[in-house]
Each structure stands twice: as structure tokens, then as C-alpha cells.
Write a structure and sequence with these properties.
single chain; Rossmann fold
Amino acid sequence: MYKNLVPAGALALAAVCFSFPAFSQPQPAPFEPVKAGFVYVSPITDAGWTKQHDEGRKAVEAALGSKVKTTFVENVPEGADAERVIRDLARQGHQIIFTPSFGYMEPTLKVAQDFPGVKFESITGYKTAPNVAAANARYYEGRYLAGIAAGRLTQTNLAGYVAGFPIPEVLQGINAFTLGMRSVNPKAEVRVVWLNAWFDPPRERDAAMALFNQDVDVIAFHTGSTAVMAAAQERGKLAVAYHSDMRKVAPDAQIVAVTHQWGDYYLRRIQAVMDGTWKSGTVWGGVKEGMIRVGDFGSKVPKAVQQEVLARQKDIASGKLRPFTGPITDNEGREVLAKGQVMTDAQIQTMNFLISGVMGRIAK
């Protein structure tokens, strides 16, 4: 008896009203990945400084997948070209830009002033701003450990060192390497050749060959290519790989590698941008933080030497071993650090001398 109480038109209207909200709800905004840019001072090669930073970039992509989109520009000279590239990346909408070369510091700061909403990471720089952080690694810790291996294996008691620019970071490495060598071989000396360039394979090779002609039988370097390793392989000498494992280039020459691990740092900083927790500041991590690792021993390194180096690596990680502990004298006979004193971070970061045992002067 109640069958016809609701008019058919009302039922139709009700059907429309109940179905309408499904079409009227706002659609979620499309997902936008974080855009991260990287500027490289040299080409990406099989090994070296730039290769390690690009491995860090790839580690970020592997960890975050579609949540991140990375861009890189390689072989960018320091100076005006760097500023142009950094500025272009900021204009393209990158939320965070990594600039891993010391000479990129000033261009990064200049661009950052014009893009306050973009985060910048000056890698190996030391100046910061509200939207510019600085990060570096304690490369000298790895250099000290490599010096132990070199000191054990040299037959001539003379090592060579092909150096880029005379900045504190490079001086730290030369001095720590020398201290490591002399900790196990007090007769060891280190001869330095300055290039005033980070990446110049022909000149790197020539410098290595010149050092080998001066009775050097083990060599280290602070430049960006594998040229020194290849030269050591060619001449039947020993060498310390830097930045990356370089046994592919120098299977017989490499005694150990000091490698840089950037993936975890880059991941943390990009994640902070995603979370809205990014802050400016400085980071200086080493063996303890996993940013520097020594290993990848060559076939000519006795097990006892390998074990010694790895044991000292654990001592550095625990704080038991501090490479720059007195007494330390420079190579002109002046006392730098008294016996038992430990050099402060501020002193290490402004290092401007070569220690006793280094043959040569700081390049002008």
C-alpha cells in the first residue's frame, strides 16, 4: 500500500544527488619528485673524484626511486663557468644543488643569494649562508693509513706525491701521508710536485714519471684522474689510489686505495629537503662516519701489512689514534706541535706548512 508514496522523479533526483559527490571531490595533486642537481669539475671517468660523487648520486636514485630526479653537469671549470651552470640549475627548479669542488664555493654563495628558496651544498667549501651548507671529509685520515702501507713497502725510502693546489686540504694529505710513512719507517721521505690543477691527465702522468726518475718507488697523488696510477703500472712502481679503487687501471701497482663515500651524506641531505628539515651547517666526517675508507689492497701487500693498516683504521674510528699528534716539526725546522699535544680542527683546517720529511715547498 506504500508503493507509490515516492514519485519516480524524486527517486531519479536522489540517484543523481548520491552519485554526484564521487565526481565533485578534488583530485590529489600530482606527485612531484625532489629535483637535485650536481655540478662536476671534471668528466665522469672510470675512477676518481668525480666518479665517487656520481656514485653518490646514483646511490640516492637507488634509495629514493621516483621520489627524486637528479641532474648532473660534468667537466665544469671553476669560476665564471661554474656560476653560470649553478645558476641555470637553480632556474630550472632544482630544490637542492651539490657543488663538489673547492673552487665552486664562491660561485655557489653568489648564486644562493639570488635563489633563497633553493638549498645549496658546498662540498669541500667552508663558507655557509642560510641556504648554503658546507661539507667535507677528513681525507687526511685515509692518507695517514696509506702512508703506513707505503712506509712498509718502499725499498728506496722515497715516496712521491703529485699534488693539485696548495690549499689546506692538500697540505693535510701530504703531511698525514708522511707521518704515516715515518710512523713505521723513520727514514722515509716524500718528494712533492705541484700542478696547480685538479684534472690534467697528461701533466699528472709527466709529474709521476719525473718522480720515478728521482728514485721514487711508491707514489700518491691529489688530482682527479687515474694517470698517476697508470704511470706506476707502466714503470713497475707502487702507488696509492685516491678517491676510488683503481686496480682496474693499475692491477700490479696499487697497494691500497683511499676511497670517498658520498652516498649516505647525499641521501640524508635530500631526504631532509623532502621532510622540510634541511638546515645549513657544516659537516666534516671521516673514518668514524663512514665517509673515508681504506682498503682494496693490491696483490703485493703482505697480509701482515693489510692487518696493520686495518687495525690502525679501527684506532682512528675509535679516536684512539689521531694522526696530527705532537711532536711535529715543519720541514724548515720549526716546531709546530709540542710532544703529546693534539692538533685542533681549527689548526688542521688552516694548515699552511709542510712537515719534516717532506722535500719541497708550498707552491705559490
